[in-house]
Every structure is written in C-alpha cells, then in structure tokens.
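Email to the structure team, subject: D-methionine transport system permease protein model.

Hi all, the expression group asked for a predicted structure before they design truncation constructs. Nothing fancy, just the tokens so they can compare against earlier work. One-line instruction: predict D-methionine transport system permease protein, return tokens.
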Amino acid sequence: MLDRIIEILPELNTAFFETMLMVGISLLVAILIGLPMGILLYVTDKGLFLESRPIKLVVGVIVNLIRSIPFIILLVFLIPFTKLLTSTTIGPLAASVSLSVAAIPFYARIVESAAREIDKGVIEAAVAVGASPWMIIKDIIFPEAKPGLISGLTITAISLIGYSAMAGTVGGGGIGDLAIRYGYYRYDDTVMFTTVIVLIVLVQFVQYLGDFIAKAVNKR
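Reply from the structure team: attached below.
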C-alpha cells in the first residue's frame, strides 16, 4: 500500500494543487461579487437606509434561482458559457466557472445573514447623525459583521472543496478526478482511501483556520 501511495504521489500532488486553484478562484469571485450582493440584499430590506423592494426582489430571485439548481446539473448547464469564457470545458480553470457561479449566491446569503445579526439601533443612530450609506457599510456593517463574514467564507470554502470533487467527475481535474479515474474506474482502493484522507485533512485545516481567524477578529 505504501509503495502504491509513493507511486501516485506526483499525480496526487498535481491533483491537490488543481483543487486549490479551483477553490481559490471561486472564493475570490465569491468575495468580489457575492459579498456586495449580500450587503445589497441586506441594505435594501424593509426599514433599512437603502430600502428598495424592486432591487431586493430581483437580486433575491437571482440568488434563489441559482441556489435551487444542484451543482452537478449547474456544471453541465454552464458548459456553453464555460467554453465561451475559457475556450475549453475540461481542466481546473473551466471547472472554476461553475464553482464561481455556485459560490456567489451561496456566500451572498451568508453575508446577508451575518449582517442581520447587527443591532439595528447602531445603524439607525448612524443614519440619524447624517452618515452616508457608504460610511455605514464601511464603518459599521463590515466591522460588526466581520466574524460572521469570515465564518461564512470558511463554510463556502469547505462546500467548494466538495463541489470541486464533483467537478472532477466531468473532467474538471483535482482530487475528485483522481479518485474517479483510479479509485472508481480501476477499482484502486488505495487511491480512493488516500484521496478521502487528503480531503478530510484539507477540510479540517480550513475549518480550524477559519475558526481561528473569526475568533481573532471578534472584538465583542
């Protein structure tokens, strides 16, 4: 068994970094698009300083539509869009497109939930003294919701690790691809066992790191 693990080590190393690439790109897109979208969902809610029922409704419907599609179906559905963006439908970069689309609404809802934990009295006081919407978002919402945002990012990262393994079943590369090629098609239990252990260790590390950072920034 040890000899077999040493034999597949180069491929396992490549698969690990492909998984990291997919998750990294998707997390970055989730932060760049999902974070503002989640804040928008919160600040346009009833009774808040940028209340807007039409915007809240449209953004909410888009988020719910994407979240309602199982990832494996979304992966296949986005193949034409993926090919348009990356000129290919296989490999970690191509898989990152579907992962990013799945991550955006997922993280947006977590951001909205984290923002709801903020005491509305603090926001009302800021509005009363004439603070601009951007100042409220930058100086009150972000600092107050920071632990929740980081915990949400941790949850998103762990979900993306699972999704990336699914992406491997359709040629996305990464640890999932390695497990399918060797563990399933070739009935190699050693490879399957090794990939499972790697995924468990990776998820545990991400969870620990996320919890540590969330506690470090929590000033409450």
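The mean pLDDT is 89. The domain at 2-217 is CATH 1.10.3720.10 (MetI-like fold). Ping us if the truncation boundaries need rechecking.
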